Amino acid sequence: QTCALPIYSPLTGYPIIFQNLPEFFGKIKDIEFVNANFIDKSSFMKYRRKITGEKTNLKDVLLLKPGVFMDHRGSYTEIYNKKNYNEIFKANGIPDIEFIQDDISVSKKHVLRGFHGDNQTWKLVCCSRGEIYTVILNCDEDSPDFGKWQAFTLSGENMHQLLIPPKHGNSYLV
User: Fold this and answer.
1) What is the pTM of this model?
2) What is the CB neighbour count within 10 angstroms for residue 6?
3) How do residues 76-110 score in pLDDT, each as one tens digit?
């Protein structure tokens, strides 16, 4: 027996037909089947395939845009993949980074977190919910860019991240 299930490709927008899967789907409970004829296909799926990295005005500070998959159910984002991130870092002249700690900060609206950072730690900063206005400041007194800064908006909607090198301060307003 053949089972044909239309799923729309995030790359082409055309249906993909999976066949001979009744035994697979028979084992899964609570599957949400959607009649695609009732969905506006122009907004059905949005997909940014792979993480991208953009240089900023500050040396070694990168604006990272992870791949985001969105459809009528919600979204999926891979927020870190060592191999993919280190490829972007290498392409931008940044050494492989071994992140060893993961922290979450939750702040109320209108809270201002002052500049913070140290001489050794690389930071990967994002905003998973809401929005922050963040300023990155070069605090390296030996750098010709000492005192130079740049502002960014990170949000749960854009899912952008900032790679912040040592000797740079990070401050943000929620």
Assistant:
1) 0.71
2) 14
3) 888 888 899 999 999 999 988 988 888 889 999 99
